[in-house]
Amino acid sequence: MLKNLVIVVVVVLGLVASPADAQNIKETPEQKAFKFRTSLFQTFSWKLGQLHSAQSASDETGFINHANDLLVLAKMTGEGFEIANSMPEGTRAKSEIWEDPEGFSSKTQTFVDAVSSLTEEGAMESFKVRDFASKNCGGCHREYRTKK
Ligand code: HEC
User: Fold this and answer.
1) Which fold has domain 32-144?
2) What is the pLDDT of residues 52-101, one digit of tens each?
């Protein structure tokens, strides 16, 4: 009776677990962190685009909403780099991130502060997407991301 139950449970679990789940389980913590941070950085690019579109449409409410979204995301930057030397295949993270943790976290903080200022009323007027990206995104990339 118990044996049958065990067999049923095993069969059901086997049906529920998809190949994608199996792949997730096989990933190392470093690979998961790499996937997390690259997805996060892609949302940064998306949100910069949304900020620019809102500005072009003179939509201040939209601009402030996107800035608030980006602020929440920006605060997660450090989470992707918590495992020391997590540089799996395909990464462009430099080892300096972990050799100089204070420098890296100060770049993160500069970025968070810059995004935070975009959430303030009137920030849309003086927003320049290229300058913002070059200073705050590029400011970190130039030191902590390898060139292609
Ligand atoms: C504090 C540092 C830091 C800041 C700030 C930062 N980035 Fe990055 N970014 C990195 C690092 C490091 C990588 C490489 C990560 C890896 O490959 O493991 C990266 C990778 C990327 C990637 C490539 C993702 C992929 O698919 O491989 C994009 C796109 C990107 N960043 C966009 C941005 C944008 C846009 C901003 C600003 C709004 C920004 N980043 C701010 C450090 C930063």
Assistant:
1) Four Helix Bundle (Hemerythrin (Met), subunit A) (1.20.120)
2) 999 999 999 999 999 999 999 999 999 999 999 999 999 999 999 999 99
CB of 145 within 6 A of ligand 1: the answer is yes
9 CA distance to ligand 1 middle (Å): 43
Integer angstrom CA distances of residue 4 from 9, 16, 17 = 9, 19, 20
Contact of 55 with 78, CB cutoff 8 Å: no
Whole-number Å distance, alpha carbon 115 to ligand 1 midpoint, is 15
Mutate to test the pocket of ligand 1, among 141, 144, 146, 148 (most ligand atoms within 8 A of CB): 141
pTM higher than 0.85 for the full model? yes
* Residue 41 Cα to ligand 1 middle (Å): 5
Q: 93-103 burial, b if ≥16 CB within 10 A, otherwise e?
A: bbeebbeeeee
